[in-house]
Design goal:
By secondary structure, this protein is an alpha+beta fold. The protein has one domain: Aminopeptidase (3-Layer(aba) Sandwich), CATH 3.40.630. The chain has five helices and seven strands; from the N terminus they run βαααβββαβαββ. The protein has a seven-stranded mixed β-sheet with strand order 1-2-3-4-5-7-6, with helices on both faces. A hairpin with a 2-residue loop joins strand 6 and strand 7. Helix 1 crosses helix 3.
């Protein structure tokens, strides 16, 4: 199976929304109330919000393809688009979302490697992300990839406050 990725444009708005809903639901619906899930999905992934993020010059989205099918996406932020003040020499990985049927095929690692390559090309000093403190598999994956916990911040799922670990890799 051929794996490749491409930068998203406004033409990809509906596909981004569909994948965002699908992957977020698959990953987190069992650990959160339906009310909080729906509130979050409506806020984070409505078309107006995705369009705002897609047109922000400090954010980029990339689809990953498995064969000819969109299998997921990567969202990167720099400068003022970062969800935390990490400086202009840092690149944030805000999302690595892979559809369930494409998980365990190395696509997450592929997207992470692409993000690191982009950060290196831009001469960033570090790359970082936030990961839910209850997501043990993701935390173990990022640690294996050389990320270390450097902090934490609040994340709201509807009206429920949760904790995301901030994990950073020095480049």
């Amino acid at each position: 199976m051929k794996i490749h990725f491409k930068k998203c444009t406004l033409k990809d708005l509906n596909t981004l929304q569909t994948i965002s809903y699908e992957t977020f639901n698959e990953t987190f619906k069992d650990q959160n109330s339906p009310e909080n899930m729906n509130a979050y999905l409506e806020k984070a992934f409505n078309l107006k919000q995705i369009e705002k993020e897609l047109t922000n010059l400090s954010s980029e989205f990339y689809f990953v393809f498995a064969g000819d099918e969109v299998a997921g996406y990567l969202k990167l932020n720099c400068h003022d688009a970062q969800s935390e003040e990490m400086g202009d020499d840092a690149l944030e990985i805000e999302r690595i979302y892979i559809k369930r049927k494409f998980q365990k095929l190395g696509l997450g690692k592929y997207l992470l490697d692409q993000a690191i390559n982009i950060a290196l090309e831009r001469q960033m000093k570090k790359i970082w992300l936030g990961v839910w403190d209850q997501n043990d598999n993701a935390i173990a994956f990022y640690e294996k990839m050389g990320f270390v916990q450097t902090g934490a911040h609040a994340f709201y799922m509807g009206d429920e406050e949760q904790v995301d670990y901030i994990m950073t890799k020095t480049l």
